[in-house]
Amino acid sequence: MTLLNGLLAFGALAFTIPLAIHLLFRSRFKTVDWGAMHLLDTVVRVNRRRIQLLHLLLLLLRCLLPVLLALCLARPILTGFQTLPGDAPQSLIIAIDDSRSMSARDGGETGMSRMGRLQQALADIVGGLSRRDEVILIRSSDVESPPASMGVQEALRQIKTLETEYGPVDLDRLVRAAVEASNDSSHPQRRVIIASDFQSQMVHSGVLESLQRMATSLSAMAIRPVISFLNFGQNSEQLANVSVDSIDIQSPAVVAGRNARYVARIRSSFDTPARDLRLVWSVDGQALEPRTITIPPRSSITSQLTRNIEQVGVHEISLLVEHSDALLPDNRRSIAVDVIREVSVLLVDGMPSSNPLEGETDYLAIALSPFAFGGQDQPDAVRTSVIEPQELLKKLDEQAPDVIIMANVESIEGASRRRISEFVNEGGSLILFDGDQVNAGSYNAPWESTNTSWNLPAQLGEIAGEPTDDSGQLVSEEPPPLPIGNANPLYTPWNLLGSEDQRPFADVEIYRYRKLTPNRVANSKFDSDAEGNSELDTTSADALESEINTVTNLLTMANGDPIAVSGRRGKGRVLQFAIPCNTAWSSLPMRLVYLPMVQQLVLDLAGSRKQTTVDVGNGFSVALNEFVTTVPSAQQKQADASPPTQDEENDASVTYSVEYAGEPEQLIESIEKGDSELLIPSTQVGGTYVFRKTLPKKEGSPEISSTLRVVEVPSEESKLRDVEADRLATAAELIDANIYTDRQELESDDRTRRFGREMWRWLLIGLLILMIGELLLQQRVSKVGAA
Amino acid sequence: MRILDLITPKDLSRVAKLQILARQVVEGLCSGRHRSPHKGFSVEFKEHRPYVRGDELSDIDWKVFAKSDRLYIREFEEDTNLRCTLVVDRSGSMRYRGERSEGRSKYQYAQQLAASLAYLMLGQQDTVGLITFDDDLRDQLPPRSRPSHLQALLSALAMDSSKRETDLGGVFRKIASKLGRRGLVIIISDAMGDTSSISRSLAHIRSSKHEVLFFQIMDPDEIDFPFSGRIQFRDLEQTDNEHTVEAVSIREAYLKRLREHDKKLRTACRTNKVDLIRMTTDRPFADALHEYLALRRRLR
Prior knowledge:
With 787 residues, chain A is α/β, with parallel strands linked by helices. Chain A is built from 19 helices and 39 strands.
């Protein structure tokens, strides 16, 4: 224990005053010759001991009063709590949750957001540090970056600029990052503050397990930091909020010039109906006609937009709900849509015919390009070319189709086979329709290309439903149709044909089909060095590769036999039908479902694989050939078809830049010659990222082309819900952390830890209690024996 | 020793006017203001009553017998004088003299009270006796009605108080045996003793048909215990008994003890039909006596 005003402690000697008075008065008394000693004798005899005790106690209290007063003025400090000398420099590691929920305005009348309060509190804490102290700031949005130590002024500046455009973060990640940063800090006195609103998604059971494991490593640390949770989130459930939780594209692919449907889900956590909300859809920042909606209490509604985008490229579709609520940033949500030009489909007809609808692919060609067939001006989403099998190589040299459909082709061998194999490997899509000409053995053999080999999703077997007599001979009489089963409800294109209950394929009659046996191990790496034998590579990378070679049943017969199966092969996909695409074995082409089915299949296969909308925190890539100038789609298509000029390819002065979240445009310098894409390894803030490619021209202004990506905060951040107090307490207990809701409490504890605990308040309280006690005791002394 | 040595002339004149009327008829040797229960040779006829066997033949009213042929006894009512014995406590505890009692100790107060009563009664031709006591009987003067008897009484009263302790119970029992015929016994004491013993003694006296008045003489200090600071209390009855205490710290306990003592004493007196009158030495005793006699008159 130390004393701040040590000299004043000598005042404690004043205790001698009451003692001296006591002793002095003890030897001085007045004598009375008393008559009624008969009465007094008993009284004195009975109460003598008690009176003596009370007097001694009174003397003690009176002696203690000046002692306590002197100690109080001397300001004693208990240093038992002190871990290091109080003036030792310290390292303060602050892990800040900058997720979107920290934007919630729960400051009552002040209207301050949680982040505002956090900034204020941290500014106070950091502002109270000395110049020798160091600060390490860790943001949940940038938790992977190596921590940087900084001075107080820099920390204050960074705290002021904190934003809240990040997604959910797990508590254990924040704690781990902070503890690791503390290991690298300079001073032996280390404090970790986890500043967050501690939402429920932050402390799930996995987090608790992780913290438990962390506790072991913490206890093994040579210098263990003092961890504190500073909680800014309380009563989240009482905050009323409207949020746009999602925007989904209902169409399998968005084709330029064709309508696509977008559905947004809007949720309200108000206890009363949220009336007259203005919904504003916008495309590429151009606001559309606003709509007014009402959301019932604590429920969700959907809003649909059908929109035709003319230009190819990535476009931003966003929805804004104009309403004042607790969390404003989630009132707007965007997605990036990759609008593709029309899909090129190559139809390989195994049995062409000059008569209408007698060719193998006639029904297919009509279904894929209905407007062209009907002579209408409206553009079709799919452009088809019908060729014979022997023309395949030549055609593939001429154009690069998105999808190749082979209908009743007997077999593909030689160069054509290798070419198709490469086509699929590199991301193309192949659809195989069966037929009576098909040679199953040829199809079942591995499809080999230069360095890989793959098998079809399903092995082709016998034809089922062949009209035979008892001896197995084919008969001319047509047997009754075989019952068809269900469509796979998880396959997206089927969903657009009608709901599962409506059974869109129910009226399709199938008379014959090929037995397909799904090929579970369908791909193997081609090893050219091992005497031409292919072998299965069992390394983990290949195991991962084989995972994507799954086979999915898309449509089955009632007996469970697959009619359509699909599988990923290389970068592309292969879809196999057990029936032909004409009316030879089934009535499918004659049914209403045929046209949308074929359209959706092709659009799904040829649709964009680009990840144009990502959750904040994740990375993404932008292909360099994706940048488009703002020219109409027809011209663009032409431009795309033409090979790049030598000037363009060799021009080293091409620059790429990105602009997002209100930040100034930044030049991307990490791109090197030969790179095919811009890689953004991770994102820290949500918003629209606009990438620009600047191509200087020898004459005139440079040509600027652009594309974009949308980085969104997951909708979990909009569901404001505090973690249960018990759970948070458990988490804190696991790592010996303390929970604070008040900055002053935290600082007070820290002062106690650093400098010791000031005692004067307790002594003053003790003094007051003693004074009251002395008064009461004096009263008591005068009433001895009265009870 | 003269009466005026004990009582101021003013007090004496007030006392002289007082009329003591005993509540009950007491026996007396000579006629006075007090009615006698004895029927016989008095001048005032009371009533006739039928003759019963054992009556004196001389008491028969022969005239009535002649008229009515029945035997009647003539009865007379006769006034007798009061036979009073003053019992005065002169123990050590009676020597206490507080500041508020005009320089009078309790014993001095008792002396004056006894002298006043004696003078009053002798003035009425009542017989007055005196017994003083401390731990035992000291002076004993038998009741006389002669005016010259006052001198003897005053001389006995003028004796200084002793330093001996009181044993009220034991002394009262001895007094009871000395009292002789029934009469009025006036006890003047501070009653500082065992109340149960006092009660038994009073019962003993009352069993002899004596009327008893108990004047409890107290100093105001003994009633409200006004002391403060550190006080050494020395016993007036025993030289080796003393207590040095913070007076304030035992005041409440003392007052409680006093209340208990008073309560027991009142109970003892009430049980034995003894009139208890507390007199404090700061009050003129004549006033107190006047009030008492007025009360006796009302009760008559």
